[in-house]
Design brief:
This protein has about 575 residues and is mainly beta. Helix content is about 5%, strand content about 45%.
């Protein structure tokens, strides 16, 4: 597979973009600072968490923009944004950026001195004309990419065949937002690693019987001068070495291992994943890097709890693993990473799995776009759960595109305290929920609080189980908003499926298929009608949204698919109701 990489040095940026005193937007750096204003240098590197659902995730990056306000709305003509456009788009395989691997996509950016609180990443849309970098990038079969943003996966609905699908980034012209505090000082260099975390942000959905993908970005960032690393190894002889071995399971082997560094949440109610990585199936090696050494309030993080889970194996947990600032992969002496154990960890193989899915007729509500987290708790007084599995909902259905596999009724948790790299003494315990049982909680994509967890038992017979989701509640101070959609269709000949999508910062927030398709199906494709979407978060600086319509012929879903952006944005920042008007012409 060919990979295209571009590094921008400070001189190259200035030459390519004309940064000296240049203002304005749309492809050049824009700044309100005078030409003589002092500057510093920022490097932005990409890293990623793993996924056990996808083999490759390619995105095509075009530009990046910075702002000093976390709430500034993006418009290309707004000169208060500082924007850098790459000399040519580059295509990056996010799935390769784990185990401490970083990609210097934006290096040597010269920024006016100041404190920036918002970054936007701009990708070429999946349906834009193919960029040269996408055409020059091969998938695993040796064929050029078909879309600028593309997912490759093993399709369990088609005998586990290698399958390619578009990655639809919702309203890509608005960019993917990252908020935080990034201080640029005169003559200094700030290097950030931005984590996309595939397991949590890539969302499969049903497109006319095909599996397509969208994004639910929730980016994290790390100042690389303030991070550390943890490394380890599992016994590679216990790992499946091929897809055929995964399917046949003869002999039993573990696969799709994910290693999670978890911390107690601020409210003390559960453990949440701070960073995660995959395990190399050939060597068994893994690296958790970068790991924060301080929390958002500046308090030192003394240690992480490291959880290892995978298919056909029982979950393992190592508590109290320290991380030291300045340690990194390959470091020696004081820079050497924390080693989980000096020898490879032995796994507890167990083929007793079952799958879980939302109960029929009980999708995630009030919005269809969110996730469920499957947690287990140590059988200790006052213990709170750890995240074991996570899965996004299909935003057009409110349930999983594919049921989630879980360890069954014969499985245990294996727990050991960290012992300075020495052999770990694991104890096998039954989770507080019971063997094969999980505390399941769910949430919407944004501005809602995680539902109270309920215990889901393994199936009493068979290998499938269903659960009824809890009800997420709006976060404190957030209002429940309503968007009334007035859509008008004209000249529609063959299309019979319509999906209205409400998005925010490249994430689908909610979608309506039933009402939209009902309007489309009348009067020979020339009709108009109204319907409402409720429960949309309102009353906060970030509660503004963009809308588009997906429209296609169910008999030819791939060939007929169109995405029609609706103009303007839906502003629920200061009021709880808004009306959206849109016209959708025939192809």
């Amino acid at each position: 597979m060919k990979t295209v990489r571009t590094l921008l040095t400070a001189a190259a940026v200035a030459a390519a973009l004309g940064l000296a005193g240049c203002g304005g937007g749309g492809g050049n750096a824009s700044s309100s600072a005078p030409a003589a204003a002092p500057t510093g240098v920022m490097n932005v590197q990409l890293t990623d968490g793993p996924s056990d659902e996808f083999q490759h995730v390619w995105v095509t990056i075009e530009s990046i923009a910075f702002h000093t306000s976390p709430d500034q709305v993006w418009t290309p003509s707004d000169a208060s944004w500082v924007k850098y456009t790459l000399p040519a788009p580059i295509t990056v395989d996010l799935s390769t950026l784990n185990n401490g691997t970083l990609d210097d996509v934006f290096a040597g950016l010269s920024l006016p001195v100041g404190t920036y609180r918002q970054i936007r990443f701009f990708f070429a849309g999946a349906d834009d004309s193919l960029t040269t970098s996408a055409l020059d990038t091969d998938d695993s079969t040796g064929a050029a990419l078909q879309w600028n943003d593309q997912v490759e996966f093993l399709d369990g609905r088609n005998n586990w065949a290698i399958t390619e699908a578009p990655l639809e980034i919702a309203y890509p012209t608005q960019g993917i937002q990252l908020t935080g505090t990034f201080s640029v000082t005169a003559g200094s260099t700030l290097t950030l690693a931005v984590d996309f975390d595939l397991e949590h942000i890539i969302v499969p959905f049903n497109h006319g019987g095909l599996t397509y993908f969208t994004m639910k970005p929730k980016l994290a960032y790390y100042d690389l001068s303030q991070v550390g690393a943890i490394t380890g190894q599992v016994n590679p002889a216990q790992l499946c070495q091929s897809a055929a071995a995964q399917i046949s399971q003869s002999p039993t082997c573990a696969y799709n291992l994910i290693v999670k560094a978890e911390l107690l949440t601020a409210d003390g109610s559960r453990h949440a994943v701070a960073r995660e990585t995959t395990v190399d199936p050939l060597t068994g090696n893994f690296t958790l890097y970068p790991l924060a050494t301080h929390d958002a309030a500046g308090n030192a993080i003394a240690a992480y709890d490291v959880l290892v889970r995978g298919r056909e194996m029982e979950t393992m947990l190592v508590t109290g693993v320290p991380v030291t600032m300045g340690t990194h992969p390959g470091g020696t002496g004081s820079a050497a990473p924390t080693v989980l154990q000096s020898t490879a960890l032995a796994l507890w193989l167990n083929g007793g799995e079952y799958t879980a899915q939302f109960a029929s007729g009980s999708p995630l509500a009030p919005l269809s776009s969110g996730y469920a987290v499957f947690q287990q708790t140590l059988p200790d007084p006052g213990a709170v759960p750890y995240e074991v599995r996570w899965r996004n909902t299909d935003p057009f259905a409110g349930s999983f595109r594919n049921p989630i596999p879980l360890q069954g009724a014969t499985s245990s948790l294996h727990v050991a305290p960290y012992t300075a790299g020495n052999t770990l003494a694991f104890s096998s315990v039954i989770p507080a929920e019971g063997q094969g049982a999980f505390t399941v909680a769910d949430n919407e994509v944004v501005y809602y609080a995680l539902s109270p967890g309920t215990v889901m038992l393994p199936p009493s017979s068979g290998t499938t189980q269903t659960f009824t989701p809890g009800l997420p509640t709006l976060a404190a101070g957030v209002q429940s908003g309503t968007i009334t959609a007035n859509l008008s269709f004209s000249g529609i000949v063959h299309d019979n499926v319509c999906e209205l999508v409400i998005s925010r910062f490249a994430a689908v927030v909610d979608a309506d298929t039933t009402d939209c398709s009902s309007i489309l199906s009348t009067n020979g494709g020339s009709n108009s009608g109204s319907f409402s979407l409720t429960g949309i978060p309102a009353g906060e600086p970030g509660t503004y949204y963009y809308a588009y319509v997906r429209i296609f012929d169910s008999a030819h879903p791939a060939a007929s698919r169109r995405i029609v952006p609706l103009p303007g944005f839906i502003d629920l920042r200061t009021q709880a109701t808004q009306t959206l008007n849109g016209s959708i012409p025939g192809a």
